[in-house]
Structure formats: C-alpha cells, structure tokens
Amino acid sequence: MNRTTFLETERLVFSTWNEEDRALASALWGDHEVTKWISSKGFLSEDEVEARLTQEIKRQEEVGVQYWPLFEKDSEVFVGCCGLCPYSPEEEIYELGFHLTRDYWGKGYAMEAARAVIDYAFGELKVKALFAGHHPDNEVSRHMLSKLGFQYVRDERYEPTGLMHPSYLLKKE
C-alpha cells in the first residue's frame, strides 16, 4: 500500500485523504444508503462529495485531524472513514465520527476504528472529552456509542439533516 499509515488496528489501517481520493470519496459519500443519515435530502451530489473531500483535506492541514480513510489491512480495500473534528476546541472537546461503505456494515469495523480513534484522541491529542451524535433513526449508531461508553447529554440540531440528533459525551477517565 503506497499510502502513509499513521494509525492501525488488528484489521485496519488509517491514512489521510488526498486529492487523488475522489473515487473513494464518491464510493462512500456518493452512496445514498450512507448519506441518508447525514443529509436532509438523503444524498450528496458530486459537487457536495467533492466539497466534503476538500473539507477533510483542509481540516487535516489546519488542525491535524479529519475523518481519516480506513483500509482493510490484508486486502488494502477501502472500508470508509473514522476520525475527529473540532467540536469545542476551547474546552478541548472533539467530535468523533465514522462512515463506512455498505459492504463493511455489521462486521465490527466501525467499533474497531472508533476505539482506535478514542485512544488516539485521549492519548496523543490529550483531549478532555469526545462528542458524538447520530441521526435520530440510526439505532446501530446509538447502540455503538453506548457500547463505547458515551453518555447521552441532549438532542442537538444538526444542520446538514435539519433534525434534532441525540448527542453524547465521552469524558477522559
């Protein structure tokens, strides 16, 4: 794999997005089954996928985090992304997020990736807490955040969907 790996788990390697990743971004954020959870219209246009990729690249350059692309260690196949974005930087709170391609749903990859990112956030970045939210109808994400130890705090409006999303915090032990 001729990508830079900066984090890995038993089955996954984390890289960083770059301009050559348009096809990967499109495979993920161009899939209506993935984006129905993160967009009010249920999908992202090609331009919106391109903007999302650009936003991730820019966030890495500016603040050193992004929703990093994930690859299966053995096959090098693209699995999705998992990572961080600033939520309340002045309080040292980052947001955890993950989006997986449909072929990798239900295989434990999101949990594995999220645990690695949580360890990275608290260990390397020394954040005080992690925020996470999910679409109100996404029971899988709700269950996963609970298993990761996140505590429900409130419903919060999420602009991209226009809905009130259940929101959670995970504080450093």
From TrEMBL:
Which top-level group of life is the source organism from? Bacteria
Q: Which residues form the N-acetyltransferase domain?
A: 12-173
Task: Please provide the record's keywords in A-Z order.
Answer: Transferase
The cross-references to PROSITE patterns, in alphabetical order and at most eight, read: GNAT
An annotated Gene Ontology molecular function:
acyltransferase activity, transferring groups other than amino-acyl groups
Protein name as catalogued = Acetyltransferase
Q: Which organism is it from?
A: Paenibacillus xylanivorans
